[in-house]
Amino acid sequence: MDSILNLFSLEGKVALITGATYGIGYGIAQAFASAGAKIVYCDIKQELVDKGAASYAADGIDAKGYVCDVTNEAMVNDMVKKIEEEVGVIDILVNNAGIIKRIPMCDMTAEQFRQVIDVDLNAPFIVAKAVIPAMIKKGHGKIINICSMMSELGRETVSAYAAAKGGLKMLTRNICSEYGEYNIQCNGIGPGYIATPQTAPLRETQPDGSRHPFDQFICSRTPAGRWLDPSELGAPALFLASDASNAVNGHVLYVDGGILAYVGKQPS
Ligand code: NAP
Ligand code: GCO
User: Fold this and answer.
1) Among 112, 190, 221, 248, which one has the highest count of C-beta atoms within 10 angstroms of its own C-beta?
2) How far is the CA of 266 from the centre of ligand 1 (A)?
3) What is the distance in A from the centroid of ligand 1 to the CA of 137?
4) Which residues of 143-167 are buried (b: 16+ CB within 10 A; e: fewer)?
5) Cα 53 versus chain centre, distance
6) Quick check: pTM over 0.85?
7) What does the alpha-carbon distance between residue 217 and residue 193 come to, in Å, rounded to a whole number?
8) pLDDT 10s digits, 179-200
9) Is residue 18 within 8 Å of residue 25, measured between CB atoms?
10) In the Cβ-directed half-sphere of 247, how many Cα atoms lie within 13 Å?
11) Could you give the dihedral angle defined by the CA atoms of residues 54, 242, 224 and 17, in that order, rounded to the nearest 10 degrees?
12) CA of 18 relative to ligand 1 center, distance in Å
């Protein structure tokens, strides 16, 4: 009898992970590569694509990078066409690229709000729309949208980001609803607080040498009392990218160390 572990293999699969030069996308790419996938990634600038290529090579990962602004539909369609010609039809899409602007809502301009919505919600729509037709032809596909705690919770200064990530949760459910009949599974991953460049400002040591107040706050809201590492997203993403999750669709898997379940540690 075949081992059940074979269900987690990505041998022969092409995985596109947007914004995977570093951070969470890179951690997911490492897991997918170890399961046998061919890694394709994109970033908005050539120098970042090159930086990613050096990192992947140093880690022994055969990854191919493309310059693409995922908010630009023409660039996305051109990239997907090139990937299909140069690598193969995309079996797995991880909509990972994202930005955040931490500005009190009434101080945020409409343009700043639109910029966040554009990258964090419009772009996942654009890229998913570009890959779904070939997935239908191939008879299968996996789409993983990187959601957030802010798909469920709000906090000061992240109105645009929370609106985008809340919308991304519902886009995930709608892709599931509209394309499940073509054997396409679309799920979300909701990371907790992960130590990446995006959250670096929240972990900066203060001028007096103390920890950032937000750093202390998040550790008090996480049962394990720590920030998570990007590599800890890899195995959950592998589950959602593999045949092991063919019966899972429209689900957001929160990889948050228990934050959503926890009222927080009482201050001593
Ligand atoms: P990150 O370190 O800021 O990396 C984001 C990546 O996306 C960067 O490589 C960035 O490239 C790229 N990107 C941004 N805009 C792009 C565009 N228009 N086109 C193509 N690439 C673009 O972020 P992260 O912490 O790894 O987060 C990755 C995803 O997880 C994001 O969707 C984020 O919202 C989500 N998330 C993060 C956390 C966390 O705690 N870190 C928690 C929950 C969810 P540049 O460097 O060129 O900008
Ligand atoms: C913030 C953080 C969060 C994380 C993540 C939490 O400012 O609160 O950046 O938004 O990035 O999305 O899941």
Assistant:
1) 190
2) 32
3) 30
4) bbbbbbbbbbeeeebbbbbbbbbbb
5) 19
6) yes
7) 11
8) 999 999 999 999 999 999 999 9
9) yes
10) 1
11) 30
12) 9
Question: For residue 86, what are its two tokens?
Answer: 């140069």
Q: What is the tens place of the pLDDT at every residue in 111-141? A: 999 999 999 999 999 999 999 999 999 999 9
Closest CA to 33 of 77, 94, 97, 120: 94
- DSSP string of 181-221, one letter each residue: GGTEEEEEEEE-SB-SGGGGGGSPPPTTSPPPHHHHHHHHH
Residue 17: phi and psi, rounded to 5, are -120, 115
Q: How far apart are the first and last CA of the chain?
A: 54
If one residue of 24, 194, 226, 229 were mutated to test the ligand 1 pocket, choosing by the most ligand atoms within 8 A of its CB, it would be: 24
Residue position matching structure tokens 């908010």: 71
* Per-residue tokens: 36: 């046998």
Query: Does 196 sit in the ligand 2 pocket, CB within 6 Å?
Result: no
- Name the residue at shortest CA distance from atom 12 of ligand 2: 148
